[in-house]
Design goal:
By secondary structure, the chain is an alpha/beta fold. It has helices spanning 84-98, 117-121, 142-151, 182-185, 208-218, 279-292, 310-326, 390-400, 481-490, 524-529, and strands at 69-70, 80-81, 127-128, 131-132, 138-141, 153-156, 159-165, 171-177, 193-197, 200-201, 226-232, 240-245, 247-250, 254-262, 265-272, 297-301, 330-335, 354-355, 378-383, 404-409, 417-418, 422-424, 427-430, 434-437, 449-451, 460-462, 464-466, 531-532. Helix 7 packs parallel to helix 8. The relative contact order is 0.16. Residues 1-46 and 501-529 have low confidence and may be disordered.
C-alpha cells in the first residue's frame, strides 16, 4: 500500500495538491467523489456502528466490520452488498482509529448523511492562526487516483492554470503547459491569459452559474469535451479565439533540464511538478545529465509541485546531497496519533524512520539500481504557495542534515502531515494520519517555509529571497524573476527589491504576477481547481 503525504483538495483535474507516498503503489479500487448532504436511507439490516445496535455517540466498532460493504458494489471486485450507512460507518470508525486529530472530530450520526458528504465532516474544526487546522481532507474516484498517481494521466488540455488576481476582475493565466498536449498544439504558453470561457467574460464573473460555466470549460471531466476560449498571449495586443478539446493527457513531471555556464560555475536547473510514479525514471535521467555536465549549483523549481510519493522525494533529496551527507541519516520519521506510539497502524509494522533512498524502488525503473548523485552541500529551491507536502519534505529533510537550502519565491503551503490513501467502495479517501519530522525532530511548519525577507504571511524563515512569480518569461529562462534571483544569489548579489505596493506578497504591478500568500480564493472552484501561487 502506498503511503501518501499531502495532496491538497484534489490532485486530479489539473489540481496540484499535496500528496506524498513512501513505498509502492496505491491499493486498488477508488471511485465516487462528489458531495451533497441529502439524508441517507439507512438499511435496518446494516451492522451497528456500536455494540448493541444503532448509533452510540463516542462508541466505535472496528472499521474492518464495515469495509467493502457498498451501496453499489463494483462488478469484478470484492465489494459486498451494503448501504450508505455501512459506508459512513466505515468512514466514522476509520477516522476514529487513524485520523491524527481523531479526538477533535465532532461525532455525528452516520445515518443522517449521504456519502461522501459525511466524510467532509470527519475532520477537526480547529483553527491555527485563523486558518483551518486541516486544509488537506479530500476524496476522489479511485480510478482517477490510480491513473494519475501511476501513469500521470488525466483528462484535460495539458495546461496548469494559475490565478493572478482573486479580486474582481478575475484573472487566470497559464502557468505551464505539458508537451504534445492540446494546449501546446493550440499555442498556449506560460503567461497566456484567459479572457472568456464559452462566452463568459472572466472580468465580470459574479454569479454561481457563470462560475460553473467557467469551471466546466477550464477543467473538463472527461476526454472529448470541446470548449471555446478567448485568449490573450503575453505581449500581444489582440486576443484570439481557440477551441480546445480535452484528451487523456500524460503529464511530464520533469521538464526544462538545462545547464548554464556562469563565472561562478555551472548551474543546473530542472522543473519538477509532480511526485508521481513516472517521475522516478525522469529524475534519474535528469540528475544523470546534470552530474555528467559537472554542475556545481542546482536550482530546483518546485513552485507548482503539490506533492506525491514520499519515496520519490527521498530519492531526489539523496540525489542532490549524495552519500556523504546522507549516510546513516533520517529523511523523515512518522508520528501517528497517541493510539499508535510505536507501530504503524496501517502496515502493522514497527515504526522505523525512512532513510534517504539511494536506489530505484520500481516506480518506473527497475528496482535496485544505484541513483546518480550531485553531492551538493547547497541547493536553491524555487517555491510558491502550491509547493506542498512531499516538496516541503525535501526542504525539511535537507535542512535536517545541514544541507544548505536557499529559498527563492514565496511561502510554501505548510503541510508537515501525510496519509495513506484508502479505497472503500470506489472512492479513495485521504485523511491526515501522521506528522512527519526530520533528522533533527523538526516538523513545525504548518504555515510553510518562507524566504527570510518575506514581507508578511511568514512561515518558518529560510535563507533566501522573496520574489513574486513572473509569467512574462518561460520557466527555466535565466531572466525569469525567480530563476534570475537564484542566479544573482549564486553570484553573490543581494535579493532583488520587493515591488512597491506589495501587500501580503501580492504585487500591484501591471505585469502578470500571481498572488503569493496562499490565502484561500474567494470561491470554492478557484480553491479546488486552480493553482494560486505567489
Amino acid at each position: 500500500m502506498a503511503k501518501i503525504r499531502s495532496f491538497r483538495e484534489s490532485f486530479s483535474r489539473a489540481v496540484r495538491c499535496a500528496v506524498c507516498v513512501v513505498a509502492v503503489a496505491c491499493a486498488a479500487g477508488c471511485g465516487g467523489g462528489g458531495g451533497g448532504s441529502a439524508p441517507a436511507s439507512p438499511n435496518p439490516g446494516d451492522p451497528p456502528s456500536a455494540p448493541g445496535g444503532g448509533w452510540a455517540p463516542g462508541v466505535f466498532a472496528p472499521y474492518t466490520a464495515f469495509a467493502g460493504q457498498c451501496r453499489v458494489p463494483r462488478p469484478g471486485t470484492n465489494d459486498l452488498p451494503g448501504s450508505t450507512l455501512t459506508e459512513n460507518n466505515w468512514l466514522r470508525s476509520w477516522h476514529h482509529e487513524l485520523y491524527l486529530w481523531y479526538d477533535e472530530i465532532v461525532d455525528r450520526n452516520p445515518a443522517l448523511y449521504a456519502t461522501p458528504a459525511y466524510f467532509d465532516l470527519l475532520k477537526t474544526p480547529e483553527l491555527v492562526d485563523g486558518k483551518p487546522k486541516d486544509r488537506f481532507h479530500f476524496s476522489m474516484p479511485t480510478e482517477e487516483w490510480i491513473a494519475l498517481s501511476q501513469s500521470g494521466e488525466s483528462a484535460g488540455y495539458g495546461v496548469q492554470w494559475a490565478v493572478v488576481s482573486q479580486e474582481p476582475p478575475l484573472r487566470v493565466v497559464a502557468a505551464y503547459v505539458h508537451p504534445d498536449s492540446p494546449a501546446k498544439m493550440a499555442g498556449i504558453e506560460r503567461g497566456t491569459e484567459v479572457l472568456e470561457v464559452d462566452g463568459v467574460d472572466l472580468a465580470s464573473v459574479s454569479s454561481t452559474l457563470a462560475l460553473a460555466m467557467v469551471e466546466a470549460g477550464l477543467f473538463p471531466t472527461r476526454a472529448g469535451e470541446t470548449h471555446s476560449f478567448e485568449l490573450l498571449d503575453f505581449g500581444a495586443t489582440e486576443p484570439r479565439t481557440v477551441l480546445l478539446t480535452s484528451e487523456i493527457v500524460s503529464l511530464a513531471p520533469v521538464q526544462n533540464v538545462q545547464m548554464i555556464e556562469t563565472q561562478h560555475g555551472t548551474v543546473g536547473y530542472l522543473l519538477f511538478t509532480d511526485h508521481i510514479a513516472i517521475a522516478e525514471d525522469m529524475l534519474f535521467d535528469a540528475i544523470t545529465e546534470l552530474r555528467d555536465a559537472g554542475v556545481e549549483h542546482l536550482v530546483l523549481d518546485i513552485r507548482y509541485n503539490g506533492g506525491g510519493y514520499l519515496a520519490i522525494a527521498s530519492q531526489l533529496a539523496y540525489m542532490i546531497a549524495g552519500p556523504t551527507h546522507t549516510a546513516g541519516r533520517i529523511f523523515e520519521s512518522m508520528r501517528f496519533n497517541d493510539k499508535h506510539p510505536t507501530t504503524n497502524p496501517v502496515t502493522r509494522e514497527p515504526l522505523t524512520p525512512m532513510p534517504f533512498i539511494d536506489v530505484t524502488v520500481g516506480f518506473s525503473r527497475n528496482p535496485g539500481e544505484p541513483l546518480p548523485t550531485l553531492n551538493l552541500g547547497r541547493v536553491y529551491v524555487l517555491t510558491g504557495s502550491t509547493t506542498c507536502s512531499a516538496s516541503e519534505s525535501i526542504i525539511n529533510a535537507l535542512r535536517g542534515i545541514d544541507v544548505e537550502v536557499i529559498q527563492i519565491g514565496g511561502t510554501t503551503c505548510g503541510k508537515p502531515y501525510g496519509f495513506y490513501p484508502a479505497d472503500n467502495c470506489g472512492t479513495t479517501y485521504f485523511a491526515i494520519q501522521f506528522e512527519s519530522v526530520n533528522e533533527k525532530g523538526f516538523a513545525e511548519y504548518p504555515n510553510g517555509f518562507s524566504p527570510e525577507n518575506t514581507p508578511s504571511d511568514r512561515g518558518v524563515p529560510v535563507p533566501g529571497c522573496y520574489v513574486a512569480d513572473d509569467f512574462s518569461k518561460p520557466l527555466g529562462d535565466p531572466e525569469e524573476a525567480r530563476f534570475a534571483a537564484a542566479l544573482g544569489h549564486i553570484a553573490g548579489e543581494g535579493c532583488p527589491p520587493i515591488p512597491f505596493g506589495s501587500v501580503s506578497g501580492v504585487s500591484k504591478s501591471a505585469a502578470p504576477v500571481a498572488t503569493s500568500d496562499g490565502v484561500a480564493p474567494k470561491s470554492p472552484w478557484l480553491e479546488n481547481r486552480i493553482v494560486v501561487v505567489p
